[in-house]
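Hey,
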Amino acid sequence: MNLLVHGPAMIASHMPVSHPLKPGRADDAQSLITDPRNGWAELVTVVAPPMATDMDIARVHDLSYIAMVDRLSFPGAMGRVPSGEVKRFGFSSHGDNPPYPEMGSIARNVSGGVIHALQQVSTGNAKVAFVPSGGVNHHAMPATASGFGVFNDAAVGIAWARDRGMRVMYVDLDVHHGDGVEAMFASDPQVLTVSIHESTRYLFPGPPGGLANSIGTGPGTGFAVNIPMAPYSDDKTWMWAFEEIVPPLHGAFRPDITLVQCGADAYHADPLAHLLLTENVYVRVAERLRSISGGRLVAIGGGGYDVEATPRIWASMFAAFSGLPVKSNWLHGPKSAPILDPGASSRVMDEAKGVVDTLKQLVFPIHGL
């Protein structure tokens, strides 16, 4: 069974219209995946999520933060909570994380969806599960909202799996560093986090994290892996760096389950970043992750601010993860992306080679590679 975990309870309807995050992307991806013309009706099961409990959330978030999320999840709440408290927990009316009335329930449902997906795949009830509304919360920290993230659903799911003795490999494809997830498991050698992203020297959340020498702490040293890419890295450079690092580490770590964050904002037309990926590389990386995981993985959404391209990319990745044919009209192909001149292409590849060399020196020996 190929599982799509999605429902109206996972979609915010009161987020400010000017905010770059458009929650309806997940609905649009579902519409593409479940289109009867695909001929997949008997191969894809859609389920609504159970709501995560406060105990689930509290595995990674402070109780005081959970309480603040709930205090802000009502109409007019901003006017009733002291502004200093609101700011201390990472919320603001005009920043990345504006509170909205159903925020607490949406965040619990998305987190519950990730837990349900992990449960279904880990017990063998599903081969692949996809939670398109998840993943974008990967910046949320234990006691602060950050980068559009409220409850860090990826971390909530990983903590649920860890509580059941599973070794988890988390692969973050978002153009932004998966800093929140990394921070929550930086000292845990049973969780291997890998983030391939535009270098934090140029993009949110900024340095010092996210660089190749950020490899975890204490017993988790070597279990946080960052692959920062230079601006304007294209399909060839990005995929080369992925192949050099991710499959060998997956083979050495041998996770019980693989969780993939499918941020689509490294797409060449995305307005919030500077990489040059096409839809084709997203399909290729999904096929590769399916191969190395034995077809047993959980995928979640993520960034993606070109609202036309993101649903197509996610639908294509779901098909590739599931071993289903990718529809040709979902792919615009490499001709749609800018082409680097030879000098620029050489420079971005040289930077990628330096990152890969650093990781092979610092991280690979810890894993026996």
